[in-house]
Amino acid sequence: MDPSTSRPFRLAVNTGGGDAPGLNAVIRAVVLTALNRGWEVVGIRRGYEGLMDGDGLVPMGVETVQGLTARGGTILGTTNRGNPLRWPRHNPDGSVEIIDRSGELIEAFRRHNLDALVAIGGDGSLHIAAELSERGLPVVGVPKTIDNDLAATDVTFGFHTAVQTASDAIDKLHSTAASHSRIMVVELMGRDAGWIALYAGLAGAADVILLPEIPYSMDAVLEHLRARMRRGPTYAIVVVAEGAYPSNGKVTLVEEGKPGAARRYGGLAEQVATEIADQTDFETRSLVLGHLQRGGQPIAFDRILSLRFGAAAVELVARRDFGCMVALDASGVRAVPLADAVARTKKVPLDSEEILTARKLGICLGD
Fold it and tell me: Domain 10-157+298-341, what fold?
C-alpha cells in the first residue's frame, strides 16, 4: 500500500529507444518483484506515447509476463521518436515545430495515480528520464542498449546477445568468402562506439576491424589486405562499425535525422567494399547485418542480467531512491545517479585488453 493514499502503490514501466534482447526479461522481473510487494503494475506502451495519448496503459499481472524471460523484443512496444521534451508538432502549413510536452506528461502521470516509473532504455531514453526526473517525475532507470555505450555500467543487457548474433554471421561468411576467394565487408551496429564490432570481430576471426575510436587510413587497410592475399588464404573478412570513419573524412549517414529523431548511420560497408574493389583486383562484397543484431532470444547471460536489473530497479523504487539507474560493476548491481549515467558515451579505450589482443593477433585496425 501507498501510506499517503491508502491505496496500492502503482508502479509504471516502459521501454524506449531501439529494442534489445532482454527487454521482456526486465519487464518480467519488474512486474513479479513489484507484485510480490503487493503493488500494482501498469505498462506504458510505445515509450511515453501511451501515457501522453491516453490509450496505452496496460495492467500487468503474473499472466501478462508468463514466459517472457526468453522472448525477444518488448511486449510494451517502443519508439525512438517519442521524446516528450522535444516533441515534433506538425503544423497545417507543413512545417514541423519542436515543443516541450513534459508538463503534460507529468500531469497525465499523476492523473492516472501512478507513483513511480521504471524507465528501461539506452542513452537517448535515459537522457529523457534524467530530464524528467529533474522536473519532478519519480523515475528509476534500467540501462538497455546493444551498443554497450553507457559509461556508468560495465555492461548493458542485450550487448552480448548482439555480439553472439554478429559472431555467428561472421562465422558463416568465412566459408562463402573462402569458396569464392572474396573479401567480405560486414557492417555492424554501435553508433559512435565500437564495442559490437570489436567483440564480434575478435570472436569471428576478422582480418580487419574498423572502429569509431580509431579513424582509419584506407591505405593501411589495403596494404594489410594485399599482404594477406599474397601469403594466403586468398580471402578476408573486414568488420566495420557503422560509426567508423576515415581519418580524412566523416561518418557515413543514411540521413541526418528528422526533427525529434536521432541521425541514422549506415552505408560504410558498401563504401569500404567499393574502395577495395576499385583499388585492387580483389572480388569484394558487402553485407549490413542491421536489425538482426537486435532480434531473437537473449542468451543466458543477458537473461540473468536483465532479471537482476529489473528486480534491483524495484528495490530502488521501494527505497524512494529516484533519479538513479541500476548499473553493474565488479561489486554487483548498484545505483548511480541518472545524470552521471548519461554524462558521457562509453567508447572503447585504446589501451583496452581487447584492442591490445587484436593488435597482437595481427588484426588491422586501420591505423
Answer: Rossmann fold (3.40.50)
